[in-house]
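Section 3.1 - Work completed
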Amino acid sequence: MNIEIHTVCLKEGLTEEQFARLCGSLPLERQQRLKKFRRREDAERTLIGDILVRYLLRDRYGIDMAEVDFARNRYGKPYVDGREDVHFNVSHSGDWVACVLHSSAAGIDIEQIKAINLDIAQRYFAEEEVQFLFGQPDGEQLDWFYRLWTCKESGVKEEGMGLSRSLQSFSIEFHGVNEAREAGRRFRLYQPEEDYVMAVCAKQGDFPDRPELWTAQALAEVYAEFAEG
């Protein structure tokens, strides 16, 4: 199975009615989690990520959206209990939610590019990466920081270990602007929008040329059709 990558743009968000209906279609535990968010935008990002995964599992594998049992490994990464051939990962930032679906382990991370003190790289990047970053032209260092960061985040998510593994414990090697490698793993980078960068990590499979793009409204409509069917 090839690697599937899906992105959802939230600029045209859900109506209150859509939000309530979609939330109500989820298992009670998920509904309760969404109610704990203080900010509506945070709850909406989480809801969109959840229904995107459930829709894809139903459409690709015939797994019932309402009854799918999401278990978690010891580090908190969710997976479909009893289906070793199904792997997914979700990330969100700002106006975007992203998901990778694959038959083997994969990780994804999306970040909005914002001005930061690049000295933070000393705390999180391997020495080779720090040298690489500060060896880039001054005007390009911020973009390269986020390419490195999203690759490393997607890498630990592919492993399913989260930040229990130090980001300094492995080093990403770039092969051009949009491709990188590390210890048998491959990374592909995308930019769904000018000020966002997204990285996907996997050991096998072919990356698509571009992710499949959804709007929140389109996803809500197709999910509702499946749920009612």
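Second construct:
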Amino acid sequence: MNNPHLHALDAAVSTLADAAGQLAIYNAGTGTPLLLIHSVNAVASAAEVRPLFEYYRASRSVYALDLPGYGLSTRADRPYTVRVMTDAIVKVARWVQTRHGGAPVDAVAVSLSSEFLARASVENPGLFKSLTLVSPTGFRSGQNLQEAPEQNRYMAGFDKFLRGPGWGGFLFRQLTRPGVIRYFLERTWGAKTIDETLWAYNCISARQPNAELAPLAFLSGILFSTDIHNIYRQVTLPTLVIHGTRGDFTNYKMLSIVSSQPNWQVQVLQTGAMPYFEVPQAYFALQDKFLGDVPA
């Protein structure tokens, strides 16, 4: 996806060497750095953080990466694991930090990538300044995610089936038909009104070579950590959680494991899982106040 017409954001793109190719990072603006990290799903990309990118480019140096296997980053036939995703975030954050004189980086992550960002911050003290987790995973009621370090929900039998001759590609094509992409976005929004620009980009992105590889890993469960409660409890940075009340992502009962810690705060908006698309003014009021209150 090197064609500029396939870019998710109207911005310059830098690349960093990755173990299996390149990581793509959109960048714009000047000032204090802010790193944006999209979610993980069948058609994820930096297109999911477009409102954040467009808003903060006027006041900050803003960066949005495409995670390995997504968007403009290399979509290679390689393992896609929690470690691969976490290390990609660390690599990009260190690059951003170097560009800004060693200053720690504010970061925003969406959905499952919140787990990767939290892990990156725990493992790399001094790299990040604050964390914002939008609709983070790992907080559903009934979950007790305190297993041994680096364990996950990998389903080996299902993964073998997905990687059997033709099955994974067939399933991916069914999941990424335009009508199905719209259906899942409506479930994310919890409403029929979705962002049409995001839908259109997702339809294009899904038809690029090797687009199914990272999503099939996602379906196998290997990207879902079963030690994430331990990780979340170890986060010491100022951390803001923002989530909505509609759609498929509304169960955050287990936020109780961290919400009493003084560095964590939780804000709820009457939206779906990507509130910055729906109520940008309300969202940015919360985000700006949080970032403004973070100690220098």
